[in-house]
């Protein structure tokens, strides 16, 4: 990392379909100077999350897209280089919404101070951050797992899905995950304790769900949408609860893909399907983080990080995630 300049990844064009590296531009800017009440932060860890694909579009989703020429949006963990604020000193680690850049200034009220003694600071972007909180509230609040339930989660080896399945196991459910490789399936079953897994790229999800869930599916945590979700809807138990967390199979489709009209399955099973955003539970994030931190510290919840070295690899790593190249929470470590 250069001492004099601040490298930034900006959005240079809006993709139609899968993004390409040419949709981003690496720029150099001066290192910003902190004002009163602000911190100068040097980024050490950046997160790459599926929602970033939506921010590359012009259309407004639940928040507006990134402007052409603006720094790509996202959270990072960094070390404080200079503090002009009370309560945080040089050398402290903080979580902030820096965007894709090597340095940023942030008001002290906009950061979360991290304690490296509690957990590795990178976990604030994964299991002890937004993805972990998404898993926590989507599973416990939106679905409400009950002991003995049959519970299915898609993108099961990923940042959100891996935590979902483990929380569902803690709640006494039989848990089945879908993922895109045999290695990912072996991981969720052998390392995380899921009861079974389905490789949606090589197996018929509907046939396998029929075999694995003879009494139907009580809880479904949907990260992917598309054909996987269509297959789940064919196997609902009475009173099934479905959390719509993400639809990654649709994020790179230029037009909304129309699926089979199998909503009759919701009617027959008297099922409930509910979309949610992690931010709607913001008031309860601190308490949930405390609980997740205890679970991680005592080994109840395991996590896996997929670390890409080098700030210059941000676009390539994001594109890779859209093809399932990541195995665990995708992070980029800066060279500094
Ligand atoms: N509602 C909220 O507040 C909220 C918050 C955070 C995340 N999310 C959503 O949660 C989902 C998971 O996010 P994450 O951060 O945990 O990502 P992740 O699972 O760590 O990474 C994304 C994974 O999606 C899978 N995937 C990619 N294309 C796919 C396709 N066409 N069909 C099926 N699977 C595909 C790939 O795994 P495979 O190899 O298994 O295909 C890829 O590794 C995303 O949809 C995201 O948008 C929602």
SSE map:
Elements: E1 5-11, E2 24-30, E3 38-47, H1 51-55, E4 76-83, E5 93-96, E6 103-107, E7 112-114, H2 130-143, E8 150-153, H3 159-170, E9 174-179, H4 182-191, E10 196-199, H5 205-212, E11 217-222, H6 226-233, E12 236-244, H7 264-269, E13 272-275, H8 285-297, E14 305-309, H9 314-321, E15 329-333
Parallel strand pairs: 8-9, 8-11, 9-10, 11-12, 12-13, 14-15
Antiparallel strand pairs: 1-2, 3-4, 3-6, 3-15, 4-5, 5-7
The structure holds NADP nicotinamide-adenine-dinucleotide phosphate (NAP).
Residues 49-51, 130-131, 134, 155, 157-161, 179-181, 184, 223-224, 226, 245-246, 248-249, 276-278, 321-322, 324, 326, 330 line the site of NADP nicotinamide-adenine-dinucleotide phosphate (NAP).
CATH superfamily of the largest domain: Medium-chain alcohol dehydrogenases, catalytic domain
Percent of residues in helices comes to: 25-40%
Dominant shape:
globular
Structural class: alpha/beta
**Rg, Cα atoms, Å:** 20 Å
Strand content: 25-35%
Cα distance spanning the termini? 5 Å
Q: Are any ligands bound, and if so which?
A: NADP nicotinamide-adenine-dinucleotide phosphate
Low-confidence stretches: none
Stated plainly, the CATH topology of the largest domain is called: Quinone Oxidoreductase, Chain A, domain 1
CATH class of the largest domain: Alpha Beta
């Amino acid at each position: 990392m250069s001492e004099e300049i601040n490298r930034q990844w900006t959005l240079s064009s809006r993709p139609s379909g899968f993004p390409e590296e040419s949709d981003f531009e690496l720029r150099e800017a001066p290192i910003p100077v902190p004002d009163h009440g602000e911190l100068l932060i040097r980024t050490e860890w950046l997160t790459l999350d599926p929602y970033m694909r939506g921010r590359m579009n012009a259309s407004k989703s639940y928040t507006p897209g990134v402007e052409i020429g603006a720094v790509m949006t996202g959270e990072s963990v960094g070390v404080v280089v200079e503090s002009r604020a009370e309560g945080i000193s040089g050398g402290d680690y903080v979580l902030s919404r820096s965007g894709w850049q090597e340095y940023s200034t942030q008001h002290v009220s906009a950061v979360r101070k991290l304690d490296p003694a509690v957990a590795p600071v990178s976990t604030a972007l994964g299991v002890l951050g937004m993805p972990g909180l998404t898993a926590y509230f989507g599973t416990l609040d939106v679905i409400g797992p009950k002991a003995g339930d049959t519970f299915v989660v898609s993108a099961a080896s990923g940042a959100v899905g891996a935590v979902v399945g483990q929380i569902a196991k803690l709640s006494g459910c039989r848990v089945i995950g879908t993922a895109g490789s045999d290695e990912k399936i072996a991981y969720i079953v052998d390392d995380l304790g899921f009861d079974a897994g389905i490789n949606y790229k090589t197996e018929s999800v509907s046939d396998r769900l029929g075999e694995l869930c003879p009494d139907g599916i009580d809880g479904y945590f949907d990260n992917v949408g598309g054909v996987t979700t269509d297959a789940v809807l064919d196997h609902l138990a009475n009173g099934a609860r479905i959390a719509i967390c993400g639809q990654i199979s649709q994020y790179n489709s230029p037009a909304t893909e129309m699926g089979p009209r199998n909503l009759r399955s919701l009617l027959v099973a008297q099922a409930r399907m509910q979309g949610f955003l992690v931010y709607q539970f913001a008031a309860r994030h601190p308490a949930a983080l405390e609980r997740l931190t205890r679970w991680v510290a005592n080994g109840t919840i395991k996590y896996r990080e997929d670390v890409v070295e080098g700030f210059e690899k941000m676009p390539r790593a994001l594109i890779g995630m859209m093809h399932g190249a990541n195995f665990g929470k995708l992070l980029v470590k800066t060279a500094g």
